[in-house]
């Protein structure tokens, strides 16, 4: 049973990225998604990260809400 709290910090850990607040902020500032590009298809992911995001969305997994939140953060740059 998955007992991990599903938040942005732990999503970054699942993706093998630094989960420090400053690093999450830097990641969001440094990366963006263009219209028509799915989060899992972004060039900045490695294959494993892309697969995790894809599977989370496809299976409406526990992480899908946080994946959607990250998607929004990477698109809302106004």
Automatic annotation (TrEMBL):
InterPro entries: DUF2789, DUF2789_sf. It comes from the Bacteria. Pfam families: DUF2789 (PF10982). This is DUF2789 domain-containing protein. It comes from Neptunomonas qingdaonensis.
